Amino acid sequence: MLKGLTKIFSKQNKDLRKRIYFTLFCLGFFALGINITIPWASEVYAELGFLEIFNLMSGGGLRSFSIFGMGVSPYITASIITQLLQMDIIPYFKELKEQGYVGRQKINKITRYLGILIAFVQAYVISIFYLNTNDVMVMLKTSLVMTAGTAFLLWLGDQISQKGIGNGQSLLILSGILISMPSVFTGAYSALITNATDMGLGITLFALFILSYILVIVGIIWIQLAERRIPIQYSNRTTSAYGAQQSFLPIKINSAGVMPVIFASVLTSIPATIVQLTKSEAAINFVNNYIVYTSPVGFLLYIILIFVFGYFYTFLSMNPEEMSKNLNKNGGYIPGVRPGEDTSNYISKSLSRLTMVGSLFLVILAGLPIVLSTFTDLPSNVTIGGTGVLIVVGVAIETYKQIESSLTARSYAAKKKRFR
Fold first, then answer.
1. Which residues contact 167 (CB under 8 A, 6 or more apart)?
2. Secondary structure (DSSP) of 13-67
3. What ranges make up the beta strands (E) of 283-407?
4. Cα 17 from Cα 61, distance rounded (Å)
5. At residue 229, does pLDDT exceed 80?
6. Do 384 and 405 contact (CB within 8 A), yes or no?
7. What is the pLDDT of residue 28?
8. How far apart are CA 181 and CA 169, in angstroms?
9. pLDDT above 90: residue 337
10. Angle at Cα 272 formed by Cα 216 and Cα 376, nearest 5°?
11. Percent of the chain predicted with pLDDT > 90
């Protein structure tokens, strides 16, 4: 890894360095915008509920009514919606999916417009609930500013993808989470050392906290990179013709990523937000005792929902039947398994077993912060694990792979040029 990073500063990779500098400049501009709050809006002190995950992605900008307070989360929501619509729900979207590059361009355009529309609706709803005013014009003005901020971030993400190192939208989310992370360690330091009665014990606990955080990150990296490789043989290819390299169908342990946790958080937090508006004491007590994931029953419901959405999203994004058909079209087959329904069942069984392990990992990762806040006196913002760390590690790994592949391609091109 270090060897690859040193290659960035070689003369032949000058263009890549420019791309990295441009990306850092754009991310710095994003960090600056997060701290620019809308003048007539005040910071939200109430619980954000299911919006807390989006506040984390925007670097805390949603709570402070920043001009970039919505971040690119509306675009992520729009992307999920368009992905679902491509799964035989609306024929038009399925046709666009099958059109290749042209269809993807149209889907991206629809996703952007839908993302901006969702950004306006979300901003207006947030303004109604959390802005201390009944003035409709003020709420509309706030919504327009925040929507404009999201539209600008979509453009900024495109610039990073085209002129930077890629993954523009993902890098913006990563930056927002990283901006929020220092408060976790400062909060832990303050609770365990500054306010400790026994300094020695406090230092030991803080060291254990740091060690636990590192172990969680190592575990996330291992899970994110772990995959099962199903061997694939092609009837129209010979092994010797391809340098004795066997083809594989890679299936990740955690194919669903962070989506099951987001879906489960949204579903468990929506009732709490609704009953707060109704101000019904009985409804508030019921939700707090049986639905909110800080209660024992709610925590169990939260875990079940993560498992359900883990399977749902994995099989939605990786359709075994479609994978079997694509293999058959390309003349590929799994050795020892007949093409068609048997191949589909084999992939489905493998996917189901891997998803069980991946969902269990997500449950542990999502449950750690809840257990920590329940059984310790640490502040609510001090967590080990959680959705934010999973997003950061996933995006960081993907970005590193892109830089590494770019370095490899440039090195190969330079060698080829020398031997001409």
1. 160, 161, 395, 398, 399, 402
2. GHHHHHHHHHHHHHHHHHHHHHT-B-TT-----S--GGGHHHHHHTTTTTTTTBT
3. 332-333
4. 30
5. yes
6. no
7. 92
8. 19
9. no
10. 40
11. 9
Q: What is the pLDDT of residue 30?
A: 92
Question: CA nearest 228: which of 208, 248, 209?
Answer: 248
What's the residue count for the chain?
420
Q: What share of the chain is helix, strand, coil (3-state, %, to 5)?
A: 70, 5, 25
Helix axes 199-225, 182-189, angle to 10 degrees: 150
Q: What are φ and ψ of residue 348, in 5° steps?
A: -60, -40
Which token pair is 332? 């590929």
- Kindly provide the residue ranges of all beta strands, DSSP E only, lying in 238-310, ordered along the sequence: 247-252
pLDDT digit string, tens, across residues 384-408: 667 778 888 888 888 888 888 777 7
Q: What own/partner pairs with CB < 8 Å and gap ≥ 24 does 81-90 have? A: 81/114, 82/107, 82/110, 82/111, 82/114, 83/316, 83/317, 84/316, 87/316, 87/319
Tokens 């990740």 identify what position? 252
Q: Is 189 exposed, middle or buried (0-12, 13-18, 19+ CB in 10 A)?
A: middle
Q: CA dihedral defined by 238, 240, 245, 247, rounded to 10 degrees?
A: 0
Residues 49, 270 contacting (CB under 8 angstroms):
yes
Q: What tokens were used for 147?
A: 């929507």
pTM for this predicted structure: 0.81
* Count of C-beta atoms within a 10 Å radius of residue 344: 20
Q: Given this model, what pLDDT does residue 402 score?
A: 81
CB 340 within 8 A of CB 328: yes
Q: Which amino acid is at 190?
A: S
Q: 53-88, pLDDT tens digit by residue?
A: 777 777 778 888 889 988 888 888 888 788 778 776
The Cα 351–Cα 311 span in angstroms is: 9
How many Å apart are CA 394 and CA 385, to the nearest integer?
A: 13
Query: What is the per-residue pLDDT for 244?
Result: 44
| Strand, helix or coil for residue 10 | coil
Give which of 172, 198, 196 is closest to 28, Cα–Cα.
Answer: 172
